Amino acid sequence: MVGRAHGFVARCKEDDAFPDFLNYHCIIHQQALCAKMLNMKDIMDVATKIACSIRARPLLFRAHLEQMDSDHLELLLHTDVRWLSRGRFLQRFRELCPEIREFFHSTKHAENSQLSDEQWLLDLAFLTDLTNMLNELNLNLQGKNKNVVNMISSVNAFRNKLQHLSSKMQRRDLGSFPNLASELENQQRDSAQLDIERYKEQINVCLSEFDKRFQDFALLEPVATFMCNPFRETTDIGAVASRIASLFHMNTLELEDEILTLQADIQLKSMAQEPFWNLLREETYPNMRKCATFLTALFGSTYLCESAFSHMKCIKSKYRSTMTDDHLEACMRLTLSSYSPNYENLTDSLQCKSSQ
């Protein structure tokens, strides 16, 4: 529907009569797709196969874990539909690897050779660490009060983190990879014996995927940077005004005048804070106020829509399938609203009457 090559957006871009518009994909969806690009399918396939084999005998495996006084009493499963399940599954699987090996041995089940393969276990530990980092980013992007500026900042911070991780891996510094360092310790090896290029390549693949999938925000990022700090002295006023004008269909010369006037306003400079753009007078800065409104109104993800469907699924359970549309609408409004009534004031405003 919105594909850049053959979708609705591409068709609109091809039509010269269609006005220019800003388009981008859901940031959370893009981040989830980046996480799938890691070239370690063999790790996930083997781990998933072992987990499914164990889940065929859940009670026996649970009794085995209880007997071994394990910290966990079950093995999680992974599904691509739930984005965070990959990291949680890998972390739990790695923590239970000794118990899984012992379980296969005690039940005389054909043990998977990878569970004794040192290189495979190192790859599993590395993938667990990197996937946990991607999960942290995904959780950071979720939430009701996230605008596109916050989300771009989070993505850029993670890209910088990947570059830093690549440099640390080159120096054989495993401080940011606790599972990988732990597995090396279990194998009584040090980082000097680690195939650094193997893991550095995976980090660079992830970084290049982020660069490719978030290139839509290259046009928006300079505008967001300026709107967050309009008094920065190094701002290229002409470039910023031209970018804002092209994105939001404004007059470049008027924008340049407003930016120059704004940066020279000593009183406004001392009041720079989050609701700063509300302080600008409409007659003096009409374009600047409009740009701030446009930028704030941009939704960075479809989180609100998806959370609404999740709430609706809970409300419309099989025991409440006959509820009316009006009742469902009222329940959805209560569930999705962030408004919290002041019950004390409401009770104080009521007139108490004694029953006769």
From TrEMBL:
Protein species of origin: Mugilogobius chulae
Single GO molecular function: protein dimerization activity
Protein name: HAT C-terminal dimerisation domain-containing protein
Domain HAT C-terminal dimerisation span(s) in chain numbering: 276-332
Classification via Pfam families: Dimer_Tnp_hAT
Membrane-crossing segments per the record: none
Signal peptide: none
